[in-house]
Specification:
The protein is mainly alpha-helical. It is 53% helix and 3% strand.
């Protein structure tokens, strides 16, 4: 759509269009679906090089040079920074669920461990059932407990 509607883009216009229309689609609900398969990560990462080629005069430059001139980082770098934020957000959400600050029954998500001995006063040790599928290993419950 951007290529069709904008024939010539300079760096300033490209940044506005990219940050407004393209990147939000790439990062929408990324903390929920959390791409972990290489094919999904590569699919997302392939959009940005194509987008940076839209800037006039940038087609022959390498991807790294285009990023430097435009002032962007790779999506993988952004994703790594978001992993830390996502982990913090997951832990905060877990705390809210366990302490009743969210209107969610904690037993829907978490199982309290039966082994309360040796927990040094901790009564909220969590456990989860092992899953057969690798897909389930990256769900919210498993990410938080790990």
């Amino acid at each position: 759509m951007v290529r069709r509607n904008f024939k010539r883009l300079d760096c300033k216009d490209f940044l506005i269009i990219y940050k407004t229309y393209i990147r939000p689609h790439l990062e929408y609900a990324i903390c929920a679906w959390s791409p972990y398969l290489q094919k999904d990560i590569q699919c997302l990462e392939s959009v940005q090089p194509a987008a940076t080629r839209l800037v006039s005069g940038f087609k022959k430059l390498s991807y790294e040079e285009r990023l430097r001139k435009v002032g962007l980082t790779t999506l993988e770098v952004r994703r790594q920074h978001k992993v830390v934020r996502r982990q913090r957000g997951d832990l905060i959400e877990c705390y809210k669920i366990l302490t009743g600050k969210e209107n969610i029954d904690p037993h829907q998500f978490f199982h309290l461990s039966d082994n309360v001995h040796g927990l040094r006063g901790q009564s909220l040790k969590l456990s989860f059932n092992r899953s057969r599928l690798d897909l389930r290993e990256n769900f919210f419950i498993h990410r938080v407990i790990r």
